[in-house]
From TrEMBL:
InterPro entries: MeTrfase_TRM5/TYW2, SAM-dependent_MTases_sf, TRM5-TYW2-like_MTfase, TRM5/TYW2-like_N. This is tRNA (guanine(37)-N(1))-methyltransferase. One of its GO terms (biological process) is tRNA N1-guanine methylation. It is an enzyme of class 2 (transferase). Its EC number is 2.1.1.228. It comes from the Archaea. GO terms for cellular component: cytoplasm. It comes from candidate division MSBL1 archaeon SCGC-AAA259O05. PANTHER family: TRNA (GUANINE(37)-N1)-METHYLTRANSFERASE, TRNA METHYLTRANSFERASE. SUPFAM superfamilies: S-adenosyl-L-methionine-dependent methyltransferases.
Length: 281
């Protein structure tokens, strides 16, 4: 039998037209694991769907069903193995870097790959970067690999993510540049990293607004760049975020250098980023 072209074709004999439409065609691949969300109406078919996905993508060893939203401060999610090896750990390759992750215990999204590379390309030689929400180190390691940054301080509160970050720093040979730090971003900056950075990353759109003062505090006294992640709603994707920043730091001079839609999040709602130059007014 020839290999089916896509998930829809692979399931044509198992699911009705309506079920195929409900299933859609969206899933993520991280290393050798696929993650798929299923509507409740298709839960009885989850095993067939998982096996079909493995048939279509020959390199997969496991298919996970995402059983709930990304949630909580640590941004993790409930996952269920529906086909293949019963595991949640894998190694993902992106722009020449390797990221080992346990998808059930840390945050990771392959959908941010383009944004990570965009940031890495902005970093100038000799810069000190502070990443307030570094996860398993993907932004930080990509920066270390694709720029001549001097240091990338990489904070995360999730001890498991920091363990993986140490491993990833080692396998990508970025130990001279990336410095993993376990802890709360506010406490770590206040105690150790005040006034150190030319550039601050805030890749946590759900809570970035609560940490804007921390990002400003992390910058060198002469100021620098803050990548501020937020949610933007149509039709005004960026202006409310910019207004928030200007109102939250009225004593600062804030220039918008760039702005991007990182990805679509829900109907009319987008994950956005503002690249801000922040200095004293
Ligand atoms: C959306 S994830 C982004 C991780 C990583 N930058 C990436 O793109 O894969 C946000 C990360 O922030 C961490 N986090 C949440 N609150 C934090 C805090 N107060 N201080 C430090 N890290 C925090 C979570 O553990 C999580 O790993």
């Amino acid at each position: 039998m020839s290999c089916p072209r896509d998930l829809q074709e692979a399931l044509r004999d198992d699911l009705s037209e309506d079920e195929l439409e409900e299933l859609g065609s969206s899933f993520d691949i991280v290393g050798d694991i696929a993650i798929i969300k299923l509507p409740d109406s298709l839960l009885d078919e989850k095993q067939e769907i998982g096996e079909a996905l493995m048939q279509v993508h020959g390199n997969l060893n496991t298919v996970l069903r995402q059983a709930g939203p990304v949630k909580g401060e640590l941004r993790t999610r409930d996952l269920e193995v529906i086909a293949g090896d019963p595991k949640t750990e894998t190694t993902h390759r992106e722009y020449g870097c390797l990221f080992k992750v346990d998808l059930a215990r840390v945050y990771f999204s392959p959908r941010l790959s383009r944004e990570r590379f965009r940031i890495a390309q902005k970093v100038r030689p000799g810069e000190v970067v502070t990443n307030l929400f570094a996860g398993v180190g993907c932004y930080s390691i990509l920066i270390a690999k694709h720029s001549d940054a001097e240091k990338v301080y990489s904070i995360d509160k999730n001890g498991v993510a920091v363990e993986y970050m140490h491993h990833n720093v080692r396998i990508n040979k970025t130990g001279g540049t990336v410095v993993p730090v376990e802890g709360d971003a506010r406490e770590v900056v206040e105690e150790h990293l005040r006034g150190e950075a030319d550039r601050v990353l805030m890749p946590l759109p759900d809570f970035a607004r609560d940490f804007l003062d921390v990002a400003v505090e992390a910058l060198k006294p002469e100021g620098g760049i803050v990548h501020f992640y937020d949610y933007g709603e149509e039709p005004d994707l960026f202006e409310p975020s910019l207004r928030f920043v200007r109102e939250a730091a009225p004593e600062k001079e804030i220039e918008l250098r760039d702005r991007e839609v990182v990805r679509s999040y829900a109907p009319h709602l987008y994950h956005v980023v503002l690249d801000l130059e922040i200095g004293d007014s």
